[in-house]
Specification:
The chain is an alpha+beta fold and about 600 residues long. About 25% of the residues lie in helices and about 35% in strands. The strands form 6 sheets. Strands 18, 19, 20, 21, 22, 28, 30, 32, 33, 34 and 35 form an 11-stranded mixed β-sheet that branches. An 8-stranded antiparallel β-sheet has the order 12-11-17-8-9-16-13-14. Strands 2-3-1-4-5-6-7 form a 7-stranded mixed β-sheet, with helices on both faces. Its EC number is 3.6.5.-.
Length: about 600
């Protein structure tokens, strides 16, 4: 059967997973009466809840006499490690662009990787049936984007289609019949080249491992594209590291290929096809799986370095061990090492005491997803504020800068520009009206300045603004950037919070906790209305007397609190604070729970 390997790339929420659903349906991958969940490719619980793709996943459809392997890639730059590996397996990309929003930052990030690899793009303008769609403007912006990213003449001469993924149609003309996706299937077959590896089927077997999975019955499973030769069940092969060092020799116990949403056992994997192998015990991502006669590893795509680091430690608060089962540093370390093995964008390092671990990654969202997965698995952790990783170039300290694209109502643009260019040391690159009373602002802002900004941004824009960010490059250190301006309210007692005490404390600031919640000394229970920290007693009840008179008691009416999400909590804390994460709770606390210790630490820092 003829073969094509493609990846679908797009910005978050531009509809690529929905489009893959329709490709699967119209290719006959499902039975007519088969019950299939919406966004079938988002198999992870977190992906379904957040509506984003976190893990790259492959599927396969058959169109006439051609099998098309389709890879659904993450749209967010924080998961860029997934994108870079996956693109080395495909020969073409379908770039999906929202006809109303046009190409966005994450589109730019993934597209630059695809163009650098020489992949030929097909542009699909999605959601053209929306009332605010401007497909012609979006198409012009895509061409400008390709030109800015250094696309060659072949890549600039890209074919384009108009589509509505949710309605299941795609046409070469905007006013086409709007029936089905046949035009997209045919364009993929005609425009994307067949894998060049097919010519090397008679050579020695080689395959670059790009994703790592596990199965409770067969153990480790490595997925990649067969670069040359053939691999059969029972064949003895070896694994080579990036530098050519022999890692292990093993017998292949299973060969699987993607068929629809599932994987199917096959007898033989051939050059050009994407397959999964089992049988190894040590081999991992970026290793070369090859025949015993091969001694040179395949080139692995370099991965962009991490930009932030977060300290994961044991939970040592008075409430530790009540929710989670996995609380020891040894168990936390094993889990983090397992994550680093399959996720090449994450690096783990031990701290001097051995009780905490420095975890480096791409961004707050990537860290938030890792922590959320761990708490669902029963872990208890204490998490520090993210720190940006600096590096030295030519004797000068440089820091990472991100390109921020903001769509905001015209009336709030002044407040946003003042914050990102003044307080957060950003540089304004572009500002233009984007229609419907909105302004688009593009700025280059140090990554340090964006930590904790998103909540403030939503407040400044009354919840109507949209902020997207992507790694841009490195710039000389911009000096001190002011963090959170307000202090916090700290509990000075252990016990359960009392409604009457919280009601009296409301004039001091906004609360993070509700009555009957357990608190302890050093726990942060609210935000102070001034810039200093304040120790308060949330357990103080009303003094009782023998005298009662009608109408003298005031009713206790508390202002509803807004719970912070995990990412918001991590971005909110200062350097002397931690986030306590358990399966059932997210709490903020001071690093030092004892007040005397806190004062000593403050003097030392001062």
């Amino acid at each position: 059967m003829d073969l094509r390997n493609i990846a679908i790339i797009a910005h978050v929420d531009h509809g690529k997973t929905t489009l893959v659903d329709e490709l699967l349906k119209q290719s006959g991958a499902f039975r007519e009466n088969q019950a299939v969940a919406e966004r079938a490719m988002d198999s992870n619980d977190l992906e379904r809840e957040r509506g984003i793709t976190i893990l790259a996943k492959a599927t396969s459809v058959e169109w006439k006499v051609t099998r098309i392997n389709i890879v659904d890639t993450p749209g967010h730059a924080d998961f860029g490690g997934e994108v870079e590996r996956i693109l080395s397996m495909v020969d073409g990309v379908v770039l999906l662009v929202d006809a109303a929003e046009g190409p966005m930052p994450q589109t730019k990030f993934v597209t630059s990787k695809a163009l650098a690899l020489g992949l030929r793009p097909i542009v699909v303008l999605n959601k053209v049936d929306k009332p605010d769609a401007e497909p012609d403007r979006a198409l012009d912006e895509v061409f400008d984007l390709f030109a800015n990213l250094g696309a060659d003449d072949d890549q600039l001469d890209f074919p384009h289609l108009y589509a509505s993924g949710r309605s299941g149609w795609c046409d070469p003309e905007l006013d086409g019949p709007r029936k089905d996706l046949h035009a997209l299937f045919n364009l993929i077959v005609n425009h994307v080249p067949a894998p060049r590896q097919i010519k090397h089927q008679d050579e020695d077997f080689t395959m670059l491992a790009t994703t790592l999975g596990s199965d409770p019955f067969v153990g480790r499973i490595l997925t990649g594209r067969v670069e040359s030769g053939r691999v059969k069940v029972g064949q003895t092969v070896q694994a080579l590291s990036r530098i050519g060092q022999k890692i292990e020799q093993f017998r292949v116990t299973r060969v699987q290929a993607f068929r629809g949403l599932g994987q199917q056992d096959i007898d033989e994997g051939v050059a050009g096809d994407i397959v999964s192998l089992a049988g190894m015990t040590k081999a991992t991502v970026a290793d070369t799986i090859c025949a015993l006669a091969v001694d040179t590893p395949l080139d692995a795509q370099p991965i962009d370095p991490p930009t932030i680091t977060v300290t994961f430690g044991i939970n040592d608060s008075p409430l530790a061990g009540r929710d989670g089962k996995k609380v020891q540093s040894r168990v936390i370390r094993d889990r983090l090492m397992k994550e680093a093995e399959s996720n090449v964008a994450i690096k783990i390092a031990d701290t001097p005491g051995g009780e905490a671990f420095e975890v480096s990654g791409r961004g707050e969202l990537q860290m938030g997803v890792l922590i959320e997965n761990m708490r669902r698995e029963g872990f208890e952790l204490s998490i520090s504020r993210p720190q940006v990783i600096m590096r030295e170039e030519n004797g000068q300290i440089v820091e990472p800068v991100e390109e921020v694209t903001i769509d905001v109502d015209d009336e709030y643009s002044g407040a946003v520009i003042e914050k990102i260019t003044g307080v957060r040391k950003g540089e304004l690159v572009e500002m233009k009206p984007s229609g419907a009373g909105k302004t688009r602002i593009v700025a280059h802002v140090p990554s340090r300045g964006l930590i904790g900004y998103h909540g403030e941004f939503l407040t400044d824009t009354r919840g109507t603004g949209v902020l997207n960010r992507v790694f841009h490059g490195w710039t000389p250190h911009k000096g001190t950037i002011e963090g959170r301006r307000l202090g916090v309210l700290i509990s000075m007692e252990n016990g359960e919070a009392v409604a009457y005490a919280l009601w009296n404390l409301e004039e001091r600031g906004r609360m993070f906790i509700e009555p009957q919640e357990k608190v302890y000394t050093g726990m942060i229970i609210g935000e102070h209305s001034r810039d200093n920290d304040l120790e308060v007693n949330p357990l103080k009840g009303k003094k009782l007397t023998n005298v009662r008179a009608s109408g003298t008691d005031e009713a206790v009416r508390l202002t509803p609190i807004s719970r912070m999400s995990l990412e918001q909590a991590i971005a909110y804390i200062n350097d002397d604070e931690l986030v306590e994460v358990t399966p059932n709770a997210i709490r903020l606390r001071k690093r030092y729970l004892d007040p005397h210790e806190r004062k000593r630490a403050a003097k030392t820092v001062g």
